[in-house]
Specification:
Order of helices and strands: EHEEHEHEHEHEEHEHEHEHEHEHH
Number of helices: 12
Distance between the termini: 32 Å
Strand order of the largest sheet: 3-2-1-4-5-6-7
Strand content: 15-25%
Number of strands: 13
Structural class: alpha/beta
Oligomer: single chain
Length: about 375
């Protein structure tokens, strides 16, 4: 019997700080599951094995755990790569590119190809002097230590090329894999009446405080808001809800493994972030026929909300526009959009094709 040769990228090394529910890490686990199913070896350098995503670790993945959630402890990645000799290193988001840079610095020409996914906006309205020019300088250094970039949409690819001065041939577009729905039944705690749903970490970037303030101002005072997610801003948001007298109308639901039943039941899914990458929750909601209200937090938002029938896009910080958009979709006369298919059910395979090509090209270069 003839044994098929191993693919060029037979062993993939990646990293994650924790498994506390971030979209970057959740997408990584979905990809890893499919890579393992394709008979690739996947090793994950993990800071600390904690958080709700522990339940989503795919069978067969090799975990190297540091036992600490401190970001600096991921600095062992170069030593790990030297020890286990992966074929590629996959950097799953912007947050981790400094570790990729350290790896290239330590290993030099001995580093395997490093592929980085651009997971967040490169234009950061929250940055002011001197951080803003320093960040722009940092972005322009990336092509020196990242072999290939992956953007999650065409507009993000254009932004990456401009912000990083990257060779367009070194930037691919691969959307995140869509979530797997595990439950289509309405949850028992689903509120009755008009419903708004937000899905995302409770972190300052998400600006859930804006949405909570808006609930006090909307026309339909019987409407309720459910925010699904967990994070460091919970105490501040809880205090805000109490101060505004909204305890009966706003619920911080915590982490939910499959928010699709809430999204399906909502009058609108709402995202009020200052900055985002390609907001997966917008695509998830539209796939269910639920309109969206989103701040212009990413160049990808207008790609997703391609026409007014799908939802409303409001400027960051414009509370009047946000309230008006919420009133529009809470109106009994609002027409829900037809479901919009999500892209890239084959994103894991597309990544593997890219990985194999980069490894084969590197080996050919070494031989030649």
């Amino acid at each position: 019997m003839t044994i098929a040769p191993a693919p060029p990228a037979a062993h993939i090394l990646s990293l994650a700080q924790t498994l506390r529910g971030g979209g970057v890490e959740r997408s990584l686990l979905r990809l890893a599951r499919d890579w393992l199913a394709a008979d690739r070896q996947v090793t994950l350098l993990l800071g600390q094995r904690d958080g709700p995503l522990v339940a989503e670790l795919p069978a067969g993945i090799r975990i190297i755990e540091r036992g600490s959630a401190a970001f600096r402890d991921l600095g062992i990645l170069p030593a790990i790569a030297r020890d286990i000799q992966p074929d590629v290193i996959f950097c799953p988001g912007n947050h981790y590119t400094s570790i990729a840079g350290l790896t290239k610095l330590r290993l030099g020409s001995g580093a395997p190809p490093i592929i980085a996914k651009i997971s967040n906006a490169l234009a950061r309205p929250d940055h002011v002097f001197p951080l803003a020019p320093a960040y722009r300088w940092w972005l322009r250094r990336h092509p020196g230590f990242i072999d290939h970039f992956v953007a999650m949409s065409p507009a993000m690819r254009d932004e990456a090329i401009a912000a990083m001065h990257a060779d367009p041939n070194r930037v691919s577009v691969i959307a995140n894999p869509p979530p797997v729905r595990t439950n289509s039944a309405p949850p028992a705690d689903l509120p009755k009446g008009p419903l708004l749903v937000g899905v995302g970490r409770l972190e300052p970037q998400k600006r859930w405080d804006r949405l909570i303030d808006a609930i006090k101002l909307i026309d339909q005072q019987q409407a309720v808001l459910v925010i699904i997610g967990e994070g460091s801003a919970r105490p501040a948001l809880t205090a805000q809800i109490a101060r505004l007298g909204l305890c009966n109308r706003v619920t911080l639901m915590g982490y939910v493994s499959d928010p699709s039943p809430y999204l399906a039941a909502a009058n609108a899914a709402v995202l009020t972030s200052d900055f985002e990458g390609v907001p997966g929750v917008l695509r998830e909601a539209l796939a269910l026929g639920t309109p969206v209200v989103a701040t212009e937090s990413s160049v990808a938002v207008r790609e997703i909300v391609a026409h007014p029938g799908l939802g409303s896009i409001v400027p960051r910080g414009d509370q009047v526009a946000l309230v008006d958009a919420l009133n529009r979709w809470l109106s009994p006369a609002a027409i829900r959009p037809a479901p919009v298919a999500q892209p890239s059910a084959d994103s894991a395979t597309t990544y593997l094709v890219l990985f194999d090509r980069l490894v084969a090209d590197r080996r050919a270069g070494f031989r030649g």
